[in-house]
Amino acid sequence: MKSQPTACRARAAGYVLPVALHVLLVLLVLAQVVYLASRYRLRIDLTADQEATTTASTRGLLDRLGSRLVLEAYFSPKEDLPVQWRAAREVADNFLDELVQLGAGKVVLRRFDPNADKDTADKARRLGIEAQDLRSSSATSLSVDLHWQGVRLLLGNGKQEVVSMFVPTSPAMAEALLTPKLKEVMTAKRPRVGFMEWPAPAIGRQQPGGVGWQFVRGLDAVKRRYDLQNFKDVDGALLPDDLDKLVLFRPNELTDRQKYVIDQFLVRGGTLVVFADAAEYAIGPQRLFTSIPLAIDANGSQQQFVRQLEHYGIEWRPLLVADLAPPAMRAASASAPFEYFAVPATTTTGVRTLVGKNYPYFFHACNHDWRDDADELARGVDGKVDAALAAQYREAFAPGMPADDFLFRAYKKIDRGPGFYWPTSVGLRHRAGGKLDLPSGVEGRVLLWSSPLSLVETAPQRVDPIGRDPLQYSHEYERFLRSMAERLAAAQRVQVPLMAEVRGRFVSYFAGMERPLRPSEAAAVKPGEAAPSPGVPPPDAPQPTVIAEERAMLVEGERAGRVIIVGDSTFLRDDVIRGDYAQVGGPVSGNIGSTFFANLLDWISDDADLVELQSHAPTDRKLTLLDARSGRSADPLEVEQRLRSKTAVLVAVNVVAPCGALLLAGLVVWFVRRNQKREFLLSLDRVTRAAEVAR
Amino acid sequence: MPDVPVLDLVGSGARVVFRRELKAYFLSPIAYVFGALFLAVLLWQAAAATIVDGAPASMQPFFAYLPWLFLLFLPGLTMRLWAEERKLGTIELLLTFPVEARQVVMGKFLAVMVFLGCMLLLTLGLPLTLGAYGRLDWPATLGSYLASLLYASSYVAVGMFWSSMTRDQIIALLASIVSLALLFLLGVPQIVEGMFAGAPAWLQDLLNGLSPYKYFQSIARGVFDTRDFVYFACFCGFFLYANTLVLQVRRQQKG
Q1: Nearest CB to B227 within list A37, A44, A79
Q2: Mutating which of A659, A663, A676 best tests the B interface, going by the most B Cβ atoms within 10 A?
Q3: In a 3-state reduction of DSSP, which class is residue A325?
């Protein structure tokens, strides 16, 4: 007979094989299940911004593919990639596979390894795909390899676009890199957009031709999709019939002939976009605001451009607008206070930094319904709300961004419009008494409003808020703000329109007038002689001038025209959009301004293909620990102190509260248990004593 | 009534064990101290990294610290589950009860998960603070909490398995920490590449794919992928099954 432990060991040994087999089988089944689950997946993107979901832009473009799209991926093998590149490769691979799936047979993916043969590498280079020299190291070696990760999009009609480096770190980035190229390759012809610009003289820097709007027109997102052509003809020829979009960058010294050209373009049914300014300021490398004379109408001009616009239903009051509402003056990012106006400061730790300062002439429209603030604005000095005034405000005020058009979608996500610099008031025509007075057959709307804490001024009493003496900055700034606040207190609470649109069949402003002559025609007319009939050269000119035949004035068009007027052009100006003044504290409109221009071109072209992609911008989620009033108006050092103490309090509360609650609960449990134990022991004691007594 | 395995898993036997284990957690002052320490370390680190003026309202730092803390705290929570029963000799009593071994395992597993769920609930103050001062992406945050629970469940399953293998709590603790650390490190591709420099890429990918950390990161981004859920179900299922097998073998040995 076997002993007990030996029997146990034998029994255990008998289990080993079946158990091991059992475990192995289960492992195999589970591995198979995991493998199948990774092949047939269902994904739900829970992020509020849908960061990992292909937007409707990409899906819409793929749906509309007329011919086969070949995606040529010039990728070197994944296993040769340094590890930090592998995640990007996985994102790229997943996205390309997703495009093939979404293409439903119309998208073909071909993979090439340029490292495998020289011909493929040469072809990739010819296409513009760049190889990266990357160091890859292992435990035993260090090598420098060429890594390729570019994509060519080739449409059936032979049109192609190339993404030279396709290294996305997220699905959203993959889409942002590839989808615009898809749009470009699918666009048969770039729409033509005409423009006229009146650059400002360059102060303190060399920019041939002055500071204009060249940078924004040269942006990749603009120039690859639109053919922007200058139509500012010295001889004022009428615009071609096939041109249906015209952009005016800060009209200045407009001649009657130019006004006539614009008028005929509109009456014909064109879309006119005007970036208007009532005053011009040069900023310069040291940020010394210098006023530059600006006259909307040229010397000797008979017609006023403001009146001409009024004729179409636009009311442009060539006045400057300032907005004193703190949210309107706050820069989009605390880390980039130079969007508007920032000054150098030293923190308590001795670090030099830029601190944003409220400058009421630099602001944006807020995505806020100002009617909600009627009571607060109608509150008197005694703290009581004037009910009648509040009701009046509720009636008069409007949301800062009332339109739901796709142009504003991305901006609404960040709760604000593009930042404007010394803007002007541009709205709809009103009769005396405030009633809307649009021409018959024309409808219009205001697209952006300032806050009710706005001032409209003929010319600012002071433009530079800090002066030129660094020792007097604070003092001067306080004086500046006090003066603005006093003026605001004396003024009525009004919102100022900053962007407006009218559309309809326009009647020519020049109807019933003589057509303004082209300069060449005017030069051909002898002094004292009557002007020749249009298009006919003077019969006895010493040197016959060849003047192109011009069609007769179109008094009323058959198609609806459209005028969009934006009360600022500075935010798109080369120096401001390029970021020339970032080091000296702004202003810099940067991406916020350029996105607006690119989106505006899409909007006037009714091209919503990339809207979802463009408004895929993540929502502004930054933490604001101090409220706007206390956080922005006070001394930066004091603000920093307050921020530090508030942060410390919040951190402490978040740590102490749950831990304290848990420890307290533990203490209660300990007390209860101790009492229970004591009672139990006492009862035992009682029972023992009772037993002893009984004995 | 037909015998439905899933119902059977959390049947009355599992329920009894679950209640007993949960009561043991909530009536033990040590568990409270342990929980408070866990929360203090986690929240102190996470709150200091997230509550920053101008920074995005995001719980990312919190969910970045969590796997490290789970690695240190969860083995401490699971080490006693079986080892203590064996040391005190109560396991013999437990195994004689008319309950299936898998029900006992499930009861204990669910009790740990509920305790952990309560700990995580106590951290909700942080997202609420962030939500009050900024726009927190709530769906993604709640998704990350779910990912954390799934991730913790995989650690608990491994910890329980090691606890069932030994009667010494310290050995169970060390074995859990070592194996979980290894699994955690396998989830970082750079480390896999460094550790298995000469191995082919497919093997490196396979090793990387074994780690729960990889799938945790995937769900914590706010994207629910059936692959990740299936992985966690299979991972936990395997270790809970192994745990059950150990108990069954032991029961049969005793029998």
Answers
A1: A37
A2: A659
A3: coil
Closest partner residue to B55 among A22, A620, A622, by Cβ? A622
Query: Helices B29-50 and B125-133 sit at what angle, rounded to 10 degrees?
Result: 20
Hey, where are the domains in chain B? 5-254
Backbone φ and ψ for A324, nearest 5 degrees, come out as -100, 10
pLDDT band at B75 (very low <50, low <70, confident <90, very high): very high
* pLDDT of residue A631 exceeding 60: no
**B154-167 b/e (C-beta count within 10 Å ≥ 16 → b):** bbbbbbbbbbbbbb
CA distance A663 to chain B (A): 6
Q: How far is CA B71 from CA A622, A659, B122, B219, in A?
A: 31, 20, 19, 19
Residue A506 and residue A561 in contact, taking contact as beta carbons nearer than 8 Å: yes
pLDDT band at B174 (very low <50, low <70, confident <90, very high): very high
A 69-88 residues with CB < 8 A to B: 78-79, 83-84, 86-87
Residue A110, both tokens? 């071909």
Query: If 0-12 CB within 10 Å is exposed, 13-18 middle and 19+ buried, where does residue A597 land?
Result: buried
State the angle between helix axes of B29-50 and B101-121 in degrees (0 to 180), rounded to the nearest 10.
50
CB contact under 8 A, B198 and A139: yes
Which of A27, A33, A34 is the mutation pick for testing B, counting most B CBs within 10 A? A34
One-character DSSP codes across A30-65: HHHHHHHHHHS--EEE-STT-TTS--HHHHHHHHT-
CB-CB neighbors (< 8 A) of A620 in chain B: 135
Which residues are bridge partners to A315 per DSSP?
Answer: A427
> What 8-state DSSP symbol labels residue A157?
T
Which residue in the set B36, B125, B198 is minimally distant from A654, CB to CB?
A: B125
Threshold 0.80, pTM exceeds: no
DSSP run (H or E) holding A218: none
The tens digit of pLDDT for each residue in A498-545 reads: 999 999 999 999 999 988 988 887 777 655 555 544 444 444 444 444
Q: Do A37 and B123 touch (CB under 8 A)?
A: no
- Taking Cα atoms as reference points, which of A282, A284, A287 lies closest to residue A470? A287
Kindly report, residue by residue over A319-333, the tens digit of the pLDDT. Answer: 999 999 988 998 888
Interface test with A, best of B126, B230, B235 (most A CBs within 10 A): B230
Interface residue A11 vs chain B (CB under 8 A): yes
Interface of A with B in 510-549 (CB under 8 A): none
A349 reaches B (C-beta below 8 A): no
Residue B40 one-letter amino acid: A
pLDDT in tens, A197-231: 998 877 666 566 678 999 999 988 888 889 999 99
| Whole-angstrom distance, CA of residue A468 vs CA of residue A460 | 17
d(CA A182, CA A541): 57
Distance CA A166, CA A169 (A): 10
**What distances in angstroms separate CA B135 from CA A76, A413, A621, one per listed residue?**
41, 11, 5
CA distances from A581 to A214, A364, A589, B116 (A): 17, 19, 10, 53
- The two structure tokens encoding residue A592: 């916020």
**Per the structure block, which two tokens stand in for A220?**
């990749």
Q: B172-190 burial, b for 16+ CB within 10 Å, e for fewer? A: bbebbbebbeebbbbbbbe
Which residue from B237, B242, B240, B192 is spatially nearest to B214, judged by alpha carbons?
A: B192
